[in-house]
Amino acid sequence: MRIATWNVNSVNARLPTVLAWLEAAQPDVVGFQEIKCVDEKFPREAFEALGYNVETNGQKTYNGVALLSKYPLSDVRRGLPGMDASGLESDFEQARYIEAIIEAPRPVRVGCLYLPNGNPIGTEKFDYKLAWFDRLQAHARDLLALEEAFSLCGDYNVIPTPEDARNPAAWVDDALFQPTSRAAFRALKNLGLSDAGELGGQPAGTYTFWDYQAGAWQRDQGIRIDFHLLSPQAADRFQGIETHRDARDMEKPSDHVPVVVELED
Length: 265
Hints:
Elements: E1 2-7, H1 15-25, E2 29-33, H2 44-48, E3 53-57, E4 65-69, E5 73-78, E6 97-102, E7 108-114, H3 124-145, E8 150-155, H4 179-189, E9 194-195, H5 196-199, E10 226-230, H6 232-235, E11 238-243, E12 259-263
Parallel strand pairs: 1-2, 7-8
Antiparallel strand pairs: 1-12, 2-4, 3-4, 5-6, 6-7, 8-10, 9-10, 11-12
Helix pairs in contact: 3-4
């Protein structure tokens, strides 16, 4: 089973590019982030024509996530459960999470997430980022108790280590590279989740995002912020990982590229 995660940065604006990649790569399951549309405006028919079942958690203008699967989807959840530790509103107003069981012969649960950016530091946006991380960690702990195969995949908006950035010094004052952001990511992994990139031995310099500005793509000024975090049961089925860097060179590309994991059927 091939499971992809991709921040598409507006599904309607990049629909021909997204469809072309899907037809070439043929993933079984896809988690999209930043679809930037309400559910009614999601181009469902175009993906159904490729054989995908579609579930969305959309939002006007920004945010929004979706799950596509060539297998039936069940137990669909939109949004993380409960209130966060700081008492902020639930992410109903910020559509950042969707989850479902992929009803393959060997089922797997997939949670697709778009973690808050958090900039600028020192504002309620950064507080919300950390609070959202707390809620994700609590949910991951509950999922681990089920002892199921699952992937929490998506745009984590975190640069975990200096090796995950071409120029770490450029990110010192950014929310993505703050010690507290990185510690929150480590705490999530330390619950018992495995970074598929590490499992697959991907080398330093395997980036997933290049800004549109200042020739970042042309100069390879990239960062790795898109991940699959696998439960032990999913890690046992892990067979490989691919970062589709070539998607950044497609016509009208997203600033992120797809990351695909393969699990044993």
